[in-house]
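Lay summary

Proteins are chains of building blocks that fold into shapes. Our project writes down both the chain and a compact code for its shape. Here are two examples, one after the other.
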Amino acid sequence: MLQIQGFVFNFASENTYVLYNTENKKAWLFDPGNMNEQETAVIEKFIKENDLTIESILLTHAHIDHVAGLQWAFDSFKVPVKMHQDDQEILDQFQASGLRFGLNLNPIKVEVEYVSEGDELDFYGERFKIYHVPGHSPGSVVYHNDRQKFMISGDVLFEGSIGRTDLYKGNYEQLIDGIKTKLFALDEETQVFSGHGNPTKIGFERQYNPFFK
């Protein structure tokens, strides 16, 4: 059985997720945003207390608040980082992005495996389809599990909102179109675990999200 545990980290109240199999204790880590020792201790404690083995690190996109803990994660678990190639440029700007927030950060050096639209990842029999939904960032992706009806959406879709499109290489029309054609085509009961804020459901957002009125 799959379980998902969320953590709220850093200056942007970013949602980091640990997805894990309760039977074999294998786990995936999404968007590690832990930025200091206290935040890192929280997620380390959870992983240790649940005896989890992190087998993959997955990024919905590479903005600074979603990768603040990426170097720690890669160094700790020694597994490749999965992300879309179009966000490699964003990841490479990590150090420069930090300076804009008054943070002195080291460049991120990790092993990357690129994922693309339509790829499917297998997690011990659970399949996750990847949707490329640019607009918030050029390489934003959503990881969707159809059988248990949930997705990790990053900053593509929020409860009652969408991701910002005024950032570098953002595109409002592209984001709206991607959500309408790809995410809103899914089952209305699909849970959306967003990069910020509370979980929501596709059906609720189709009906009530003001960006789609």
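And here is the second example, written the same way.
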Amino acid sequence: MLVAAAVCPCPPLLVPDVASGAASELDAARAACVDALGVLAAARPDRLVVVGPAEEDARGPHPEGSPGSFRGFGVALDVRLGGSGSETRTGAAGRALPPSLAVAAWLLGRTDWSDAPVEGLGVGEPLAPERCIQAGEHLAAQTGRVALLVMGDSSACRTLKAPGYLDERAAGFDTEVARALGTADVAALKALDAELAYELKASGRAPWQVLAGAAQGAGLGGALLYEDAPYGVGYMVAAWS
């Protein structure tokens, strides 16, 4: 049974060491993520599942202790999934985490998460909505109280300097996603257009639809804690409880 969920953006820039001199620009987003994780802890889950976008070689399950790294972004910082702290354990289990789950591991380490065992799930951007929803239903049907930490960004086409350049459809897409996340509108998340999300480079579409599948019938309410597009990419933080 799903008892709570937090939705956070997943740019490596969320990690101050990666952002370097621009770190302060995402201080509000980091603070909102910490608040959202507090909602998860307050729900007293039996397990936490972190869901985030992943390339093909990192899709599927990632057990607790799986290692991640920001060395590909020029920073000698390693993390592991679950537990407190940010140092990777020697011989940590599992494949390397995709960047989205590495950011989640950093967030959990920053808050010294120790409230429940943690596991990860990397989902591919092309995964059809119905399969995302089924994956979420499967997570929620497992024994015990389940919480989700859902990582993903909205459109990357909000400005001329955005990674995907300017697309006039991006602002409307982001507005609807923010509304759906802020009101825990499961039906709206299920109905997100996968093709449009792909064209707008919205990495969060598949993870959000996993959340929608898990939250069906759970009776959760939502709150939007942060919404902005500081680099032309839509970043949102929400908490469901």
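What can we say about the second shape? The two ends are 12 Å apart (CA to CA).
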